[in-house]
């Protein structure tokens, strides 16, 4: 069957280059579908999906967008309209992949549209600004987007730019025409598992045991971006259960620290009505950026993970605040929840002799969590460190009981 590729571009600034890409994609046996997300261009367009249609899908008109001086507002309207159209194309099975072309603004807009689409759809962004500091992370975010750095400016169809476009078109053709494992699992239940270096031993043991029991276990690094992506993928229905060993991103969001996992952290599983196991790796530590240290942070107990990362111990009041956030989120869950607390340390960092080891102070979190917690939610306290085999065994047993 003929495969359709959605091309996202701004024809008011990159028409000649986009038409070359469209023709190249068509020459490879694919059906191009061109979406024009221009906000300033005048006159007719050769796009299949015009700026007028994009604006209307975003709840506005192209005339109002062109007349507005509020760049941020009209950009958001255009992105919303383009995302809505792209989502409808995917739902109606009228799109098999998406490719974008642009500089800074075009890349930001096109990749945001891509990130609105589910995991597993081929996504490729040709960008002349992919290597600029800070932009590549903004382009990709939590999306499974392939960035194709053009190196040269996308301006004029030169032989060098043709080379870039040709390679990108062939890459997209390979992604949509080749045999790709479906993103939705077809064999065994798929379980999302959060992990960090300080609880990697536990995570590995849990994964191995569950795989032996017939589950597929998909790991996410709980360093902020990975667990944000997990929440989105849960909401898209890709998992049948969650083992959240490292939900420290909840507290990091409260305080604005480096592993901030966003406001929806630890909520998607409950909304999706899938079971979840919750534990506490890294919950008693924070990772403020060194440039944003408060004076009192220098007096806190700390543990250097490496020369780049330092974990700072949370105060009792901060532990209580994080526990309240946990309780509020878990109480809204519409599915089974079990919380497992390792009494002898919440990670490999938490061992006697390490400066932040304080199991008595960790009790503050546990006691606050219990207050008003839904009685259907069981808290299991395990006489072990999180990295001990006994704790991993308890996680596996609890998981098998509710998955």
Structure write-up:
The chain folds into two domains: 174 residues, Uncharacterised protein family UPF0261, NN domain (Rossmann fold, 3-Layer(aba) Sandwich); 213 residues, Uncharacterised protein family UPF0261, NC domain (Rossmann fold, 3-Layer(aba) Sandwich). It is 41% helix and 16% strand. The protein contains 14 helices and 14 strands. The chain has a six-stranded parallel sheet with strand order 7-6-8-9-13-14, with helices on both faces. Strands 2-1-3-4-5 form a five-stranded parallel sheet, sandwiched between helices. A three-stranded antiparallel sheet has the order 10-12-11, with no helix packed on it. Helix 5 links the parallel strand 3 and strand 4. The longest helix is centred in the first third of the chain and has 21 residues. The model has no long low-confidence stretch (mean pLDDT 93).
Please specify the SSE layout and strand pairing.
Elements: E1 4-9, H1 11-27, E2 31-36, H2 51-57, H3 62-67, H4 71-91, E3 97-102, H5 104-115, E4 123-127, H6 135-140, E5 146-149, H7 159-177, E6 190-195, H8 200-212, E7 216-221, H9 225-235, E8 241-244, H10 249-255, H11 268-272, E9 276-278, E10 285-286, E11 302-304, E12 310-313, H12 316-331, E13 337-342, H13 359-370, E14 378-382, H14 389-402
Parallel strand pairs: 1-2, 1-3, 3-4, 4-5, 6-7, 6-8, 8-9, 9-13, 13-14
Antiparallel strand pairs: 10-12, 11-12
Helix pairs in contact: 1-7, 2-4, 4-5, 8-14, 12-13
Number of helices: 14
The H-and-E topology, N to C, reads as EHEHHHEHEHEHEHEHEHHEEEEHEHEH
CATH topology of the largest domain: Rossmann fold
Helix content percent band: 40-55%
């Amino acid at each position: 069957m003929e495969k359709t590729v959605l091309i996202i571009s701004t024809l008011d600034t990159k028409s000649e280059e986009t038409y070359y890409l469209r023709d190249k994609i068509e020459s490879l046996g694919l059906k191009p579908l061109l979406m024009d997300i221009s906000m300033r261009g005048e006159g007719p367009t050769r796009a299949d999906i015009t700026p007028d249609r994009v604006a209307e899908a975003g709840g506005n008109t192209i005339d109002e967008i062109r007349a507005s001086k509020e760049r941020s507002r009209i950009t958001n309207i255009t992105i919303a309209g383009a995302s809505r159209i792209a989502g409808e194309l995917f739902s109606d099975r009228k799109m098999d992949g998406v490719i974008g072309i642009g500089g800074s603004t075009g890349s930001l807009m096109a990749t945001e549209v891509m990130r609105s689409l589910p995991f597993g759809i081929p996504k490729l962004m040709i960008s002349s600004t992919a290597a600029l500091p800070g932009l590549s992370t903004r382009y990709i975010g939590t999306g499974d987007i392939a960035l194709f750095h053009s190196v040269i400016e996308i301006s004029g169809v030169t032989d060098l730019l043709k080379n870039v476009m040709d390679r990108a078109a062939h890459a997209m053709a390979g992604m949509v025409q080749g045999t790709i494992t479906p993103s939705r699992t077809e064999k065994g239940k798929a379980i999302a598992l959060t992990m960090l270096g300080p609880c990697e031993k536990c995570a590995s043991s849990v994964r191995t045991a569950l795989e032996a029991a017939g589950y597929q276990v998909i790991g996410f690094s709980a360093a902020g971006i990975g667990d944000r992506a997990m929440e989105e993928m849960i909401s898209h229905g890709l998992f049948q259960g969650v083992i959240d060993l490292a939900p420290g991103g909840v507290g990091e969001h409260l305080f604005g620290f480096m592993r901030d996992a966003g406001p929806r952290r630890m909520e998607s599983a409950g909304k999706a009505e899938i079971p979840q196991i919750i534990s506490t790796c890294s919950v008693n530590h924070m990772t403020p950026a060194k440039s944003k240290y408060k004076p009192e942070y220098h007096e806190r107990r700390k543990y250097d993970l490496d020369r780049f990362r330092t974990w700072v111990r949370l105060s009792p009041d901060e532990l209580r605040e994080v526990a309240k956030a946990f309780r509020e989120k878990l109480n809204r869950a519409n599915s089974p929840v079990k919380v497992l607390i390792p009494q002898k340390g919440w990670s490999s960092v938490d061992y006697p002799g390490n400066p932040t080891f304080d199991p008595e102070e960790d009790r503050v979190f546990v006691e606050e969590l219990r207050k008003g917690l839904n009685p259907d939610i069981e808290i299991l306290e395990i006489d072990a460190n999180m990295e001990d085999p006994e704790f991993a065994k308890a996680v596996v047993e609890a998981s098998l009981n509710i998955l």
